[in-house]
Amino acid sequence: MQIPFHRPTVDDAEIEEVVSTLRSGWLTTGPKTKQFEAEFATYVGAKHAIALNSATAALHLALESIGLQRGDAVLVPTMTFAATAEVVRYFDAEPVLVDCNEDDFNISIRDAEDRAHAVASKGGRLKAVIPVHYGGQVVDMSGVKALADEFKLNVIEDAAHCCPAAYRDSEATHWKPTGTESQVACYSFYANKCITTGEGGMACTNDDKLADRMRTMALHGISKDAWKRFTAHGSWYYEIIAPGYKYNLTDIASSIGLHQLRKADMFRADREKVACYYQQLLGHRADILLPFCKPNRIHSWHLYPVRLKLDQLRVDRAAVMDELKAAGVGASVHWIPLHMHPYYRTRYGYKPGDFPVAARVSQTNISLPLYPGMTKAETGYVAAALQRILDKHRN
To answer: What is the per-residue pLDDT across 89-122, written as a single tens digit (0 to 9) for each?
Structure first.
C-alpha cells in the first residue's frame, strides 16, 4: 500500500465551478474572487478578506500595511516555515527569532518577552509579532495580546494551518476564531492545506485602512482594481499611488475555494477522526509522544506530528523516515527550525543551543499522513508500519 503525505479532496462541485468560470470568459480576479472573499470573511468573522495568490503574499502585505521599515524588528518563532521570517527580510527588517513550547511547538510567550526586552534594551524598534499556530493548535493568544500590549506591537497571525481553528479563554467564554485579536490574520490555501485553491491565501482584518492598503498593494499599487475598471460600473481611469505587487487571486482558483470553504467544517471533522484513530492505535507506545488538543481549543488537525523518544531507540529520525518511505508511507517533517538553516546561521550567527527547545524537539519530530477521506485501513497501515520500525529498533 502507498499512503501519500497528503491527498487533496476535490470533487465534482469544484470541477463544475471551474468549468463554469472558464466558460464565463472571466478568468482572473473577478466575481468569483469577490464572492470567495465575502464568504470567507463571514466564515472567520472578519470585516475584510483580501484574496491573494499565497499566504506569503498575505504576510508580506500585512507587514507593509502596518508600515514596517528597514531596521525595524519583528518577533518570529524559529519553529516555522521559511515564509514567516522571509517576509520580514523583504523590508530589510530584522526577524527576532523566538523559541517554542515543549508541548505544542507554538511560540514561547516567556521567551518572546525575554527577547523583546533584549531588543528594547539595545534601542531597537520592535514593530510586530507573528504567532504561528503550529499544525492547527491555536497559540496562547491571551499571552500574545499581553505581550503586544506591553511592547505596543502589531499582531500578524500566521494562520496558514487554521481553517478552521478557534479558542476561548475559559469554558465560560465564547469561542473566537483565529484572527479575532490581531491586526491581520493570514491563511493558506496551498495544495496540502486544510482547504485549497491549488495556490492561494487570504489576509483578514477588521481595520478599514489596513484592508484598503492591502487591496491596493496587491495589484501594482493601483487605486482601482481590474474588476472595478472592467465592469459596467467601473472606469477606464486608474491611478498608481504606490509601487505595489502582483498578488491577486484568480477566479479559477476562487472557484475551487468557494466549495472548499463550504466543506471546511466537514474536512476538519474528518481530520479529527483520523487523529483520534491514530491515538487509539499508537497511544499505548512508550517510545513516542503523540500530539493532543489543549483545553479550550478547536484544533484544525492540519498536522499529526509524533515525537520519537530517541533514548528508547537505537535509531535516529532520519533512519525512521527512510524506513517509512520504504514501507510506502509519505511522512514529512515540520520543521527544521529557522535558526538551524544556513542563511540564519551565517547572517545572525545562530547556534542550535540558542533555541534549545526547538533544537531538541526538531530532531525527533515526524508528521504522519492526515487528510480528509483517509480511511481506517490507510491510517492503520501507517500506524502498523511505524510500530514495526520502532519495535525493530527498541533498546
So the answer is: 999 999 999 999 999 999 999 999 999 999 999 9
Active site residue 34: no
The class (CATH top level) of 12-262 is alpha beta
Strand order in the sheet with 94-98: 48-52, 201-205, 184-188, 154-158, 125-129, 72-77, 94-98
Q: How sure is the predictor about 320, in pLDDT bands with cuts at 50, 70 and 90?
A: very high
Work out the mean pLDDT of the chain and round it to a whole number. 96
CATH homologous superfamily for 265-392?
Aspartate Aminotransferase, domain 1 (3.90.1150.10)
Apex CA 187: angle with CA 5 and CA 212, to 5°?
A: 160
* Active-site position among 47, 152, 176, 193: 193
Instruction: Specify the pLDDT at position 377.
Output: 98
**For residue 225, pLDDT beyond 70:** no
d(CA 214, CA 199): 19
Where do the structural domains in the chain lie, given as residue ranges?
A: 12-262, 265-392
Residue whose C-alpha is closest to residue 87's, from 158, 182, 163: 158
Do strands 154-158 and 125-129 pair parallel, antiparallel, or not at all (unpaired)? parallel
